[in-house]
Design goal:
Elements lengths: L9 H9 L12 E4 L6 E2 L2 H21 L6 H19 L7 H11 L10 H12 L8 E2 L3 H10 L3 E6 L6 H10 L8 E4 H4 L6 H11 L6 E5 L2 H10 L3 E5 L15 E3 L5 H11 L1
Helix pairs in contact: 2-3, 2-5, 3-4
């Protein structure tokens, strides 16, 4: 499967977005972007297990109906194998659509392109693959809704920059709507739609362009040092690491502009950044 490869001239990109004054420090935050998973929302091990079961069961039912029956063991084995193939793509900071993931899953089941289902059946398979999360919704991280509401009332533009997994961006939007926070966002960027994954700085560049804000006036909040902090800082944004203490983060020689332990600390962290200018 061909991957989108971009050569990025970061100094030129930052000069374009940040002029005048290369290296200008944070004077005022006009826009804040957030990571999705483990920053604004979280899932439980039970929820993840249930979503897997629902996905495999629904895919198996559709495949059986269209003349491709498989045993539960075959479906589970193909699911794990397809996951390994997908992660090899993710390791290149690239991504793919849910439809592409479905086709990889079919390949792992031995359904080659000659036996591939027609478009209507592929669409049904994609729905079965993409939507289990709607039956086992994740939860909002403590303070997420209140924090987003406060930023909105303060006139800050809000974006979301998220890597996706088995669940594509168009379904994650439905989750935000179900949890009643979709309306807080001005911009939503999902990796499966751009075919790019954090920490590729171009995914942050797309968010900045849509938010119409220069990098030094924007800040990103996320829980991954490499993907969130490293990616945002590479394009000239400030970045705050949300460190919940669930595990050590490799150094990567990346320094966040602030560290918080929960979203309730974001306001005071922003105030410290403003005072340090």
């Amino acid at each position: 499967m061909p991957l989108l490869r971009l050569r990025i001239d970061l100094p030129r990109l930052r000069q374009r977005m940040d002029s005048p004054g290369a290296g200008c420090e944070l004077a005022m935050v006009e826009a804040i972007t957030f990571d999705y998973w483990h920053t604004l929302l979280f899932d439980t091990p039970e929820g993840l297990k249930r979503a897997r079961e629902l996905r495999i069961s629904a895919m198996g039912s559709v495949l059986s109906r269209i003349g491709h029956p498989f045993s539960p063991e075959e479906l589970n084995r193909a699911y794990d194998e397809s996951g390994q193939r997908i992660m090899r793509v993710w390791a290149q900071d690239a991504d793919m659509s849910a439809r592409d993931q479905v086709i990889i899953y079919l390949d792992c089941l031995g359904v080659n392109h000659l036996d591939r289902p027609p478009e209507d059946d592929l669409a049904e398979l994609e729905r079965a693959y993409a939507t289990p999360i709607l039956q086992t919704l994740p939860q909002l991280c403590p303070g997420a809704a209140e924090m987003l509401r406060s930023l909105r009332e303060a006139g800050v533009r809000i974006g979301l920059v998220s890597n996706t997994g088995r669940t594509p961006g168009y379904v994650l939007r439905m989750v935000l709507k179900e949890l009643d926070i979709l309306g807080f966002f001005d911009v939503l960027i999902f990796s499966d739609e751009l075919k790019l994954r954090k920490p590729n700085p171009m995914i942050f560049f797309h968010a900045l362009c849509q938010l119409r804000v220069r990098p030094h006036l924007a800040l990103h909040v996320g829980d991954d040092l490499r993907c969130d902090v490293g990616g945002a800082k590479a394009v000239g944004m400030k970045a705050i690491l949300l460190d919940r203490g669930h595990g050590e983060q490799k150094n990567f020689d990346i320094q966040p502009d602030g560290i918080i332990e929960d979203l309730f600390q974001l306001s005071s962290c922003l105030e410290r950044l403003e005072r340090s200018v």
